[in-house]
Amino acid sequence: MIEVITTPHPDAIVTQQENNDIKYAYGLMVGRRDGEPVIGHNGGWVGFTSSYFRFPRLSLSTVVFCNAADAKARDLGRRLGEIAVGHVKAENDRALTAR
Question: What is the pTM of this model?
Fold first, then answer.
């Protein structure tokens, strides 16, 4: 099943985001982030945004839920992922502090 959901659909519009080779596959974004395989999805609805990234090789996931429409769940999730894979230190990180 993992092979099926991580394989981009042949009719889907496949794009690269920020030179990280992330592709859309059956509702998930799959590819690599900073050299690590990653599977995830971002989204939102009125007054709510969310972000989910799974790093299977590291047995690690990041999940962000925000109950404000102007919150940047995707950016926070991406930043947590960078910290988790060891590319960025969390000390004094303004992106992770409360508004």
Answer: 0.62
Q: What is the pLDDT of residue 84?
A: 78
Count, residues in the chain: 99
As a whole number of angstroms, the distance between CA 90 and CA 97 comes to 10
Low-confidence ranges of the chain (pLDDT < 50): 13-19, 99
At residue 96, the 3 state secondary structure works out as helix
Model pLDDT, residue 79: 86
Residues in CB range of 21: below 8 A, 6 or more apart: 31, 32
Q: How many CB atoms lie within 10 A of CB 47?
A: 11
Bridge-based pairing state of the strands 28-33 and 22-25: antiparallel
pLDDT of residue 17: 46
Query: Kind and range of the H or E element at 83?
Result: helix 73-84
Residue with tokens 């496949």: 14
